[in-house]
What does this fold into?
Amino acid sequence: MAGVRTGIASILGWMVVLAVAPGCGSGGGASKDGRSALTPADFAAASAPASPEQGAAREGPGPRRVITSSEAREVEDVIVLTGAPVAPPAPVVQTSTGPATAAPAPAEGPAPATSQERALQVDQLVGQINGRPIYADEFFSPMDERLRREAERLPAREWIAMARKDIEGALWDTLRDELLLAEFESGLKPEERMGVFAFIEQVRKDIVSGNLGSEALATQRLLETEDLDLQAKVDDVTQREFIRSQLIKAIGSRVSISGRDIQQYYDQNRAEFFPPPVAHFVILRVPLGDEARVAEAETALSSGESFEAVAARLSTWRPDTGNEARVTLKSVDDRETRRFGPDSLNQAALALAPGQVSPRIDFAGQASRGDAYWIKLARIEEPPGKSLYDAQTQIEQKLRARRAREEETRYFTQLFARGSFSDVREMTRRLLDFAAERYLVLRELGPEQPASSVGTP
It folds into this structure.
C-alpha cells in the first residue's frame, strides 16, 4: 500500500479528468499508461484465475516478525522487535515460515541495545483499518528519508509540527485507500472476482515484457528507479486501477451536466464572460498660482492644438502615465460609478461623451490656491466577451468539477461512517511518538553515546 498512498493524490485527480473528458463518468476513462479504467464488467469478461500455486508464488512469504508471548496478549499495544529480544527469559518466536519455537537463551544474558538500535529496530502496531493492521515501520517507509533529513536540519519543535502534518495527511490517505479497496472488493460479483486474478497477472506480464521478458531485470530496474520490487509494483498498479474504478463507479457516474445547466450559469454570471468597459480620461492640470502657464494652456486649447499634446507639455497630473486616468464602469451607460472624487470634477466627467473636453474647472486646494483642470474623455473601451458557444466548454468543466467535489464529500462521509478502523487521533499520536523516538532520539545521541544516558524510551 505504500506506493498507492504515495500516488493517491494523482488518482483523485479524477475530478480534473471528468472536467476535461466528460464522457468518462459513464463510459470509463484511460489511465496514464493507456490502460482503460476498470469496471466490474471488465473482470467478468476476463479469463479464469491463475492456479493456487501461481497465486502463492506471487504473494511470496510474509514479513518475518518476532513477537514475545507477553506482548501478544495486547494486540493494540504490541511491540514487534526485528532484532534480538531484550528481556532475559527466552521468548516464543513466531515466524511466517515456520511454527513457534523457543529462542535460545544467551549464555551471559543479552547485550543491552543502544538507543540508536532501539530507534532503528522497534516496530509498533498502531491500529487497524478494516481488519488490516497498520505497523509504524511500514507506514513511515515512504517518508523515512525525508523525516531523517529534516530531523538533522530542523529544531525539534519545528520537526514535530512538520511530522504531525505529514503523518495526519498520510494516515487519512491510508484510511481512504483501504476503505476504497474494501468497497471495490465487496462490490464484485463471484464471476467478476475471477477476472481480478487474470487482470493482476496481465499487469505482471506487461511489466516483465517491458524488461526484455526477465523478472530479474524488471525487479532490478524497479529497485533502482522506484525502490520497489516486482510484486510491490504489480500491487501498486493494480490497486491504483481498483481505486480509480471505484471512484468512477461511486462518484463519476453521478456527475452529469445538462445544456440547461450551462445556459443557466451563463445567464447568471455574465460578468464572467463580458469584462466591464473602461473609461479612459486625459487630464490637463495647471496650478492656479502659475498664471502664465494657465494662460498658455487656454491659448493652446483655443487655437486647436491637440489636447494630448498640451497635456503632455503643461499638465502636472501624473505625467509618468501620460496624464491618463482609467475608470472601470458597470456598463457603457453607467451613471452611478464615480469618475473622480471631487463633485465638480465628477460632474464634469459625467457630462462628457467620448472625444469631448470639459470647460475649465477651478478646484481650490487646502494648502495652495488650487488648480485649473480640463478633462477629456478619450474613449470607452469595451473588451470583447464570450458567446455561449465559446464559453460552454469552460462552463461545463467548472460545473462538473464543482459537482464532483460535492459528490466526493457525500460519498466519503458515508464511506467513513460505515468503515471499521481505530481512532484516527490515537493512531496519529502513536505514530508521532514512534517517529520522535526513531528520528529525534537518534539525532540527539552521538554514535557512541550509550542508551543509559537518556533513560528508557
Notes: The beta strands are 79-81, 92-95, 98-102, 122-129, 132-135, 278-287, 324-328, 361-363, 371-381. Confidence is low (pLDDT under 50) at residues 5-110, 115-121, 446-457. The first strand starts at residue 79 and ends at 81. The two ends are 29 Å apart (CA to CA).
